[in-house]
Design goal:
This protein has 527 residues and is of the alpha/beta class. It is 34% helix and 19% strand. The protein folds into three domains: 278 residues, FAD/NAD(P)-binding domain, CATH 3.50.50.60; 105 residues, Alpha-Beta Complex (Flavocytochrome C3, Chain A, domain 1); 101 residues, Fumarate reductase/succinate dehydrogenase flavoprotein-like, C-terminal domain (Methane Monooxygenase Hydroxylase, Chain G, domain 1).
Length: 527
């Protein structure tokens, strides 16, 4: 078994992981552990942009209010304040480092997306912000002499003594060797879990590994019932759900039903630019009513030249599907997109386990509430990635011995079973924990997921069977939290409890060997 020693180990190579690694490199040696290539992450595929207050007509107070409004009463206000204030600083810092956001006549182009009261979305490469920004941070991070990347290496288990981090057990897919990373600080930046649904905008790597690993280690998990479904993913039979950015609606695209009528106008004052939970739910209702099972995104009324210029990448991708984005009706439907909850952290991105930090989509920092405001996610990566690295640097060195680690192996005979079980779980999640849930369906999911988890709990040392168990555990956490939250709020909609209930203006908390509990939302501002 190979043993390495680093001051900090970062799991994940999306924007949060890269930001954490870049800032951590000032304080010592850093490993970036990623289960695929460095450039495969949700961040990399983000088409939208990054929200920051740049315009003189805007203010961080406006951005805070929009974030709180979208979060439906579950945002921790002190964390949201940090996001909007430090977020502006981090974006300006990026620009100073050489990051080029889109400009027109020498001025930054600011876009508008759902739930925002002002134009404040910075883009890069038109509709390829995630790719451009993540590639920029990747070069910066890898360019640091203290940063050491480990590609095709999957994190298996957190190693800890009492309540302190000692290291990480990992497995190298290429060399087929087990590895141990000894460290005092472990930063989880593994992204989300939306690939546990049949229809998802996420890359295949987004299966909630970080959540399962942290939960097994005793970390608190918060608000996992809130899953954000992106309203507009291409809906073509037999094809992947290709994301059509919210920025498209920000530039004036309409949602129309099978009769050619705009249906968001009378539902919300912002119409197509209402918060995502509102738009996705109303698309769901329209799809239920329709005879064809189709609703559309229309850009016919917009200037074709401007559309092609602004959304070059999306335009080309839709062409490959056989659509002209500017002139055709684009069939769309919601798809699982973003995990709003996650591993619970404090304002410095640290969990209840000393030395274990989380940033990006895997974290529940308190800024997202019950529904993420569009384009706040990349901002959260930058802000809390830096905070995690700075707090980790202050940890004292620990003289802890690594206890013996049981190696894991891969038996290829189990791969068909893994795929079969992943498909069963995805079908179960989509049928019972999609945009709209009810007690009967969710309770059925809890029972079946519990059975799967139990069935595979004894196979901890074969990777495929280990993954089946982990996926079942994560999905069971979602289902259990969804069952106990008897209300509709943000990304959690119950047919049998259709209103927000003030008594549920609280965070759900799950921890291994503990009953599900609740924590109050922090309503006090900083200072």
């Amino acid at each position: 078994m190979q043993v390495f020693e680093f001051e900090t180990v970062v799991i994940g190579s999306g924007l949060a992981g890269l930001a954490a690694a870049y800032h951590s490199s000032k304080y010592g040696k850093v490993a970036i552990v990623t289960k695929s290539q460095l450039d495969i992450s949700n961040s990399y595929y983000a088409q939208g942009g990054i929200a920051a207050v740049i315009s003189q007509e805007d203010s961080t107070e406006n951005h805070l209010n929009d974030t709180l409004e979208a979060g439906r009463g579950l945002c921790d206000i002190d964390a949201a304040e940090i996001l909007v204030n430090e977020g502006r600083e981090r974006v300006l810092e990026l620009i100073e480092m050489g990051m080029e956001f889109d400009k027109k006549d020498g001025k930054l182009v600011l876009g508008l997306e759902g739930g925002h009261s002002h134009r404040r979305i910075l883009h890069a490469g038109g509709d390829a912000t995630g790719k451009v920004l993540t590639s920029f941070m990747l070069k910066k991070a890898i360019g640091q002499p203290n940063v050491f990347p480990f590609e095709n290496v999957t994190a298996i288990r957190i190693i800890k003594q009492e309540n302190c981090i000692v290291g990480l057990h990992a497995y190298d897919f290429v060399s087929k060797k087990n590895m141990v990373f000894k460290t005092k600080a472990l930063i989880i930046a593994t992204g989300g879990l939306s690939r546990v649904f049949l229809r998802s905008t996420n890359p295949y790597t987004a299966t909630g590994d970080g959540i399962a690993m942290a939960f097994e280690a005793g970390a608190k998990i918060a608000d996992l019932e809130f899953i954000q479904f992106h309203p507009t993913a291409l809906n073509v039979q037999g094809k992947e759900a290709y994301l059509i950015s919210e920025a498209v609606r920000g530039e004036g695209a309409w949602l129309i039903n099978e009769n050619g009528e705009r249906f968001m106008n009378g539902i919300h004052p912002l119409a197509e630019l209402a918060p995502r939970d509102v738009v996705a739910f109303n698309i769901f209702k329209e799809l239920r009513k329709s005879k064809t099972g189709l609703i559309y995104l229309s850009l016919k009324h917009l200037n074709k030249q401007e559309i092609v210029s602004r959304f070059t990448h999306i335009y080309q991708q839709l062409e490959a599907y056989g659509f002209d984005m500017a002139t055709d009706l684009l069939p769309v439907a919601p798809a699982a997109h973003y995990m709003v909850g996650g591993i619970r952290t404090n304002l410095d991105a640290e969990t209840n386990i000393s030395g274990l930090f989380v940033c990006g989509e895997a974290a529940s920092t308190g800024v997202m509430g019950a529904n993420r405001l569009a384009s706040n996610s990349l901002l959260e990566c930058l802000v809390f990635g830096k905070r995690a690295s700075e707090r980790a640097a202050l940890l004292p060195a620990r003289d802890c011995k690594i206890t013996e680690v049981t190696p894991i192996h891969i038996d290829s005979k189990n791969e068909p079973l893994y795929l079969e079980m992943q498909n069963e779980i995805a079908s179960l999640m989509s049928a019972n924990l999609g945009i709209v849930r009810n007690a009967k369906g969710v309770a059925y999911a809890v029972k079946r997921l519990s059975d799967i988890e139990f069935e595979y709990s004894d196979f901890q040392n074969e990777y495929n069977l280990f993954k089946i168990k982990n996926t079942a555990t994560v999905c069971k956490l979602i289902a259990q939290a969804a069952l106990i939250r008897e209300e509709s709020r943000g990304g959690h909609i119950r047919e049998d409890f259709q209103q927000e209930n003030p008594e549920f203006e609280i965070h759900s908390i799950q921890q291994i060997n503990h009953q599900l509990s609740f924590e109050p939302v922090r309503k006090l501002r900083n200072g």
